[in-house]
Amino acid sequence: MDDFLFFDLWILWLIVSLLCLIIELLSGTLYILCLAIGSLIACLSSFLGIPFEWQILVFALASLASVFLIRPLALSFLHRGEDKRKSNVDALIGKQGVVIETIEQNGSGYIKVDGDEWKAVSIDGLDIPKGTKVQIVRMDSIIATVTIV
After folding, report:
1. pTM for this structure?
2. Of the N and C termini of the chain, which has fewer Cβ atoms inside 10 Å?
3. Residue 114 CB partners (closer than 8 Å, separation 6+)
């Protein structure tokens, strides 16, 4: 048994790598993937006849290097374009709506945008009568700042 482990350590590293890949499928963090990469590189070092103690060092260094080099690249590839999407009230900026309650001079009123009602103020502080089409130029919490379209 000891001869098997000594001469065929590459199988052990390959099994560790496969187990890490299976665990990565369950976690999705890409940290376990870095351990799988380290295991594969340690498997290659086993083929080269490097002693087991050095294989462990190769595993540790390759895993650590992949955390800092490969993981960020993989994350940027997997999550590309996500930061460009607007969400929440930021998605309302630029949308058009209709005044449903007159926006009074230097005061507020209400607008309807995509079926939702929002408190609104005029960007220039002027009256905007009911029924006027407006466009949202800024959102301050739940208050929309609008201009006449």
Report:
1. 0.54
2. N
3. 95, 97
Query: How many Cα atoms occupy the beta-carbon half-sphere of 143 within 13 Å?
Result: 10
| Residue pair 39/23 in contact by the 8 Å Cβ criterion | no
Region 7-29: mean pLDDT is 91
Closest CA to 42 of 23, 16, 68, 21: 16
Q: State the angle between helix axes of 52-78 and 9-27 in degrees (0 to 180), rounded to the nearest 10.
A: 30
- For residues 21 and 2, is the Cβ–Cβ distance under 8 A? no
Nearest to 103 by CA among 69, 146, 60: 146
Q: How far apart are CA 56 and CA 67, in angstroms?
A: 17
Quickly tell me which residue has 């955390």 as its tokens: 67
